[in-house]
């Protein structure tokens, strides 16, 4: 059975990730979500979320009341993992039996949501912040009820407005995916910061160093995406194409790829994120 769903979407928690998803959904150019279908549920809106609500006229409520909940067929949970369990009981009292629940919280497993919302269709998704400009990636897993009701496709239609959806069949892989793509944008931003600082340390004016670093990260990312799409090269091949034998890049890569260098550091970082995801899911939440 597939339900036709034209009801409202309630986004609970409109902070950094919630606002990034909402920004993606409100982009009409990608078949986005009309502003009058969206409701922001957050005790206080600040920054980009407040601007979005004002600019698009999105309804903003401090909490989800029973009357409004009747119109909600999709509930997206984007509060911090540390507050999730406090937020669930009140929502559980008001959401409809057929409301699709989508959580983007790191670490919190389907089982927690199945306990809070018995019998409901549930999707656990790991988005990332480039979703705000339609350049995100989602890694998702659905519970059995979501599949019984044919709602995987419904969830995908919504999530893919911010970027493609990769479905997992094994929930235990969600932590690794979080360490790669959920947290990943931070590693790339760090690379841009570090590159700019290094340029400055080598004598470039700070503003020029920043412009060079940003253009390099953005240009390399765009080139990688294009080369993978047209099948011309992968990341390792592109790296090699920049590396002239005995040239400047080779000298730099000897440092970055040496013992304890970037590949091993990135592996350690992703493993640390994966471990933290498991801790958040098991209640070690400090
Ligand atoms: N940031 C990211 O890049 C990513 C985050 N995520 C996940 O998204 C979730 C949100 O993270 P992030 O956006 O960074 O965190 P934020 O703290 O920026 O956003 C959480 C929002 O929830 C609000 N909030 C707190 N309590 C309630 C409540 N009872 N009802 C409704 N809203 C409430 C907060 O308000 P206040 O600030 O006033 O407490 C805040 O606006 C997390 O679970 C995280 O794991 C997933 C992928 C990427
Ligand atoms: O740092 C975090 O815990 C969240 C989840 C992935 C990205 N940000």
Structure, explained:
This protein has 286 residues and is α/β, with parallel strands linked by helices. The chain folds into 2 domains: 8-174, Rossmann fold, CATH 3.40.50; 184-280, ProC C-terminal domain-like (ProC C-terminal domain-like fold). The chain is 52% helix and 12% strand. It has 13 helices and 8 strands. It has helices spanning 16-25, 47-56, 66-69, 81-94, 110-116, 144-148, 151-159, 174-182, 184-201, 206-229, 235-242, 248-256, 262-282; strands spanning 8-12, 38-41, 59-61, 72-77, 100-103, 122-126, 138-142, 165-167. Strands 3-2-1-4-5-6-7-8 form an 8-stranded mixed beta sheet, sandwiched between helices. Strand 5, helix 5 (110-116) and strand 6 form a beta-alpha-beta unit. Helix 8 packs across helix 13 (262-282) and helix 9 crosses helix 10 (206-229). The protein is elongated and about 70 Å long. The protein binds NADPH dihydro-nicotinamide-adenine-dinucleotide phosphate and (2S)-3,4-dihydro-2H-pyrrole-2-carboxylic acid. (2S)-3,4-dihydro-2H-pyrrole-2-carboxylic acid is lined by residues 106, 178, 182-183. It is an enzyme of class 1 (oxidoreductase). InterPro entries: 6-PGluconate_DH-like_C_sf, NAD(P)-bd_dom_sf, P5C_Rdtase_cat_N, P5CR_dimer, Pyrroline-COOH_reductase. GO terms for molecular function: pyrroline-5-carboxylate reductase activity.
